[in-house]
């Protein structure tokens, strides 16, 4: 078999190379981002990022007549109250400018919104005061004549799709508006906003769009460090002139707001950023600022400056888990070592809250917006379990010699026992909200208990929880019992991964399509990003009654914490994930669901990782390629029982019985898992068909085969 039989990453490269554009980084920022896409291909047509940092609106209309037309060069405002609505066709953010030519005096107003719902003279809300929407910027034109307008830097609008330009005037003036332009401020260190270091493609067009909407959202959330939301909150208007942390680029929670570092959000955003755009610089700076602002007692802030909100045990731990994720994706041990003393204090701070019951007593009560927190809350305890186990891995990766890894694993065991003993509701078959007689079975703790391995993935318990979770589903997504009426794509990002962890593939794909599909196809949405949250009645008013002042326009429509499908589709559906720093160990465990094919790739300092599977009526093929010197665990779905799998390197058949070699794990009898040693560049072809049949592939000198 010649390499050209596998065109998906060989043959297509040249014809799909990114077009060369007049690319540039933000203002005087040093360009340190990637210069080209790692996996160019036909899937690039799904990328929402524009080819240039300077973008023009695509369509225009008026509030009186919303029939959109392609934008011509120049449009006119005639008389008081007239307007032009500019549609950039996707979420954008940055500095707007235009030329005007006035026949007399007047005032030009400029208002912004992400959702079309709030097109008009008042921008959607972002300033955090909850005293009304954001209003507009104004350009005062005193006499007839021409002028240029560029919005002030501090008024930079971080996230919007629609811009309404309107005229206030006492006289019958005409103002011609032309050359409307936006200078994009996000992803400031990248010269080419489309130079993705990862990709995803599958037979399902909706899933492809959702994956790329997550990726683009993360780009809009990687922003210049001096463009944070100003605190104290303004009574009128908005200002994005706050300093958020070190470096040139930093990952924030949302494009429009809050524009601050939120470590909890990073729990979903960072894995998705890694598999898609591959921006870990923004993550490093975001983590560093949390270490820089660690409190004397060892606690981390809940959010970075200038907001600097405090008092969250869960977000404290998300900073620790974020450090683990960052090390996992980059192997940047120097960064972790530089902050290690602070990490240890953070561990003692949080573990010190475990009381005689064996459970953590949550006293830092802020969290993601669930109503009830505090005391022996289940979610916080499940997160502590994950923190202890990820910390143990971190210690191993740092070659710790003082037994920290053992110590932390020894702490995780009794915690697991206590959570199961006090927080599990046997009669219901899922976790309760805390260790009391409550009837509430939350979406967050139950999803995380499966995803974080607190309960055995092959146990009836896991399957019961997964099934119970579906009882929260509505036609447009899962309603969180711990935040009634609300649909949280953040917590649902954990839920889809929980179902995938136990091979409930159809269930996970169903929830992705209902929830993220609902927003992706919503006519009022950005059509390019993932939303922070929404209500089960189909309005965008997430958290209306829980801190957002009943102002549905405050909700962010580009929130990285909702990007879970992006990492899930790569890591569980294609099934390719890293398990050791920078992918020196990795895992490939595909899941098919109702898809015909799926493929994905991502990049680490060690090189490119890529895998593809394709189904047919008689079986399936898996092909993959990982960097030299890496080691992986391959687990392939068995489609016919009773066939003994084998595995070939250079023609030699290796018997890899379930307990052969090291670290061979039997997941559930449906999977075969083999330890796949990969001393050199690997290109394996797998044919599982009804006959014992294997096709030989060839790539470089080393060839691996897996067959049945
Ligand atoms: C609305 O705008 C569209 C597109 O410009 C135009 O074809 C249509 O005639 C307009 N309708 C009215 C009622 O003005
Ligand atoms: C003002 O701009 C218009 C184009 O919008 C142009 O035709 C006109 O010559 C300009 N006038 C002056 C005085 O520059
Ligand atoms: C306003 O000016 C336009 C042309 O500039 C003219 O057609 C229209 O009749 C004027 N309206 C009034 C109320 O003066
Ligand atoms: C940011 O803008 C706000 C509102 O205009 C202003 O009060 C504040 O002083 C500005 N901060 C800085 C650092 O420029
Ligand atoms: C948990 O901490 C709170 C606040 O410090 C305290 O009032 C409560 O008694 C503690 N609960 C338990 C079970 O220790
Ligand atoms: C336990 O959870 C329920 C449901 O969230 C809540 O009403 C109750 O206040 C919680 N009790 C404690 C002690 O945290
Ligand atoms: C840990 O030890 C290994 C083997 O000696 C070495 O290659 C690696 O660089 C060490 N890692 C750190 C973070 O010191
Ligand atoms: C959980 O917290 C509640 C409220 O403080 C307390 O009554 C209960 O005994 C605690 N349960 C355990 C197992 O610690
Ligand atoms: C997980 O559960 C399965 C089936 O109940 C069992 O065979 C296996 O030993 C369990 N694994 C662990 C690590 O407890
Ligand atoms: C949706 O639910 C919210 C919260 O209960 C409520 O405020 C809003 O009026 C509802 N909107 C519609 C259209 O039902
Ligand atoms: C969508 O926009 C229309 C107006 O065009 C509005 O009537 C409707 O309520 C909006 N829907 C949502 C969910 O905001
Ligand atoms: C697997 O790939 C080989 C070579 O491309 C092809 O001949 C075969 O039909 C494929 N089988 C399946 C099940 O897709």
UniProtKB/TrEMBL annotation:
Any one Gene Ontology BP term:
carbohydrate metabolic process
Domain Alpha-L-rhamnosidase six-hairpin glycosidase stretches: 249-460
Q: Where is the signal peptide?
A: 1-22
Q: Which SUPFAM superfamilies match?
A: Six-hairpin glycosidases (SSF48208)
Keywords of this protein's UniProt record, alphabetized? Answer: Glycosidase, Hydrolase, Signal
- Name the domain of life this protein comes from: Eukaryota
Q: Which GO terms describe its molecular function?
A: hydrolase activity, acting on glycosyl bonds
Q: Which InterPro entries match?
A: 6-hairpin_glycosidase_sf, 6hp_glycosidase-like_sf, Bac_rhamnosid6H, Bac_rhamnosid_C
Q: Which residues form the Alpha-L-rhamnosidase C-terminal domain?
A: 575-639
Q: Name one Pfam family in it.
A: Bac_rhamnosid6H
Instruction: Please identify the protein, giving its name as recorded.
Output: Six-hairpin glycosidase
This protein's species is Massarina eburnea CBS 473.64
């Amino acid at each position: 078999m010649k390499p050209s039989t596998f065109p998906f990453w060989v043959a297509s490269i040249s014809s799909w190379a990114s077009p060369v554009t007049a690319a540039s980084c933000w203002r005087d920022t040093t360009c340190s981002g990637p210069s080209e896409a790692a996996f160019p291909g036909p899937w690039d047509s799904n990328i929402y990022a524009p080819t240039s940092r300077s973008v023009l609106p695509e369509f225009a209309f008026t509030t009186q007549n919303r029939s959109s037309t392609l934008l011509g060069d120049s449009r006119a405002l005639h008389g008081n109250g007239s307007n032009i609505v500019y549609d950039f066709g996707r979420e954008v953010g940055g500095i707007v400018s235009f030329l005007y030519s006035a026949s007399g005096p007047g005032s030009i107003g400029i208002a912004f919104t992400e959702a079309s719902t709030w097109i008009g003279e008042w921008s959607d809300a972002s300033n955090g005061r909850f005293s009304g929407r954001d209003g507009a910027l104004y350009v005062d034109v005193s006499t007839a004549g021409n002028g240029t307008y560029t919005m002030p830097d501090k008024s930079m609008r971080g996230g919007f799709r629609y811009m309404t330009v309107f005229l206030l005037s006492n006289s019958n003036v005409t103002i011609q508006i032309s050359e409307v332009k936006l200078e994009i401020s996000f992803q400031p260190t990248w010269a080419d906003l489309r130079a993705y270091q990862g990709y995803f493609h599958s037979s399902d067009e909706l899933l492809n769009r959702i994956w790329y909407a997550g990726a683009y959202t993360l780009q809009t959330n990687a922003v210049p460090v001096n463009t944070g939301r100003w605190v104290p909150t303004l009574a009128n208007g908005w200002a994005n002139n706050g300093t958020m942390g070190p470096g040139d680029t930093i990952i924030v929670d949302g494009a429009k707001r809050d524009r601050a570092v939120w470590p909890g959000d990073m729990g979903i955003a960072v894995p998705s950023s890694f598999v898609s755009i591959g921006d870990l610089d923004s993550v490093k700076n975001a983590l560093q600022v949390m270490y820089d602002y660690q409190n004397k007692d060892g606690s981390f802030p809940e959010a970075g400056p200038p907001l600097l909100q405090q008092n969250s045990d869960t977000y404290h731990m998300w900073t620790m888990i974020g450090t683990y994720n960052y090390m996992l994706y980059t192997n940047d041990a120097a960064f972790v070592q530089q902050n290690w003393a602070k990490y240890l204090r953070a561990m003692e701070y949080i573990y010190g809250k475990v009381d005689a019951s064996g459970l953590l007593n949550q006293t830092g009560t802020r969290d993601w917006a669930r109503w009830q927190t505090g005391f022996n809350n289940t979610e916080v305890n499940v997160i502590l379990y994950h923190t202890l186990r990820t910390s143990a891995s971190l210690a191993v990766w740092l070659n710790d010699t003082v037994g920290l890894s053992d110590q932390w694993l020894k702490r995780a065991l009794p915690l697991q026992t206590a959570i199961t003993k006090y927080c599990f509701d046997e009669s219901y078959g899922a976790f309760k909200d805390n260790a009391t007689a409550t009837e509430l079975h939350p979406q967050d703790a139950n999803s995380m208990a499966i995803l974080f391995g607190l309960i055995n993935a092959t146990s009836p318990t896991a399957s019961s929880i997964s099934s119970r979770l579906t009882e929260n589903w509505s036609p447009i997504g899962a309603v969180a019992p711990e935040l009634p009426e609300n649909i949280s794509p953040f917590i649902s990002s954990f839920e889809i991964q929980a179902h995938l962890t136990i091979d409930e593939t159809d269930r996970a794909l169903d929830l992705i399509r209902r929830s993220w599909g609902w927003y992706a196809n919503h006519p009022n949405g950005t059509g390019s990003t993932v939303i922070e949250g929404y209500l089960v009645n189909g309005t965008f008013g997430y958290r209306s009654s829980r801190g957002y002042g009943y102002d549905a326009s405050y909700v962010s429509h580009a929130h990285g914490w909702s990007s879970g499908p992006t990492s899930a589709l790569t890591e569980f559906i294609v099934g390719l994930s890293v398990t050791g720093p920078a992918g020196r160990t990795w895992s490939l465990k595909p899941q098919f669901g109702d898809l015909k094919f799926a493929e994905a790739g991502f990049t680490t300092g060690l090189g490119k990782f890529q895998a593809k599977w394709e189904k047919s009526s008689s079986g399936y093929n898996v092909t993959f390629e990982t960097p030299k010197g890496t080691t992986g665990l391959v687990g392939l779905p068995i489609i016919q029982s009773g066939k003994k799998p084998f595995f070939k390197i250079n023609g030699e058949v290796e018997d890899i019985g379930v307990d052969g070699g090291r670290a061979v794990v039997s997941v559930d009898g449906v999977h075969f898992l083999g330890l796949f040693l990969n001393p050199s560049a690997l290109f394996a072809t797998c044919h599982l068909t009804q006959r014992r049949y294997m096709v030989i592939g060839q790539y470089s000198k080393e060839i691996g085969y897996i067959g049945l």
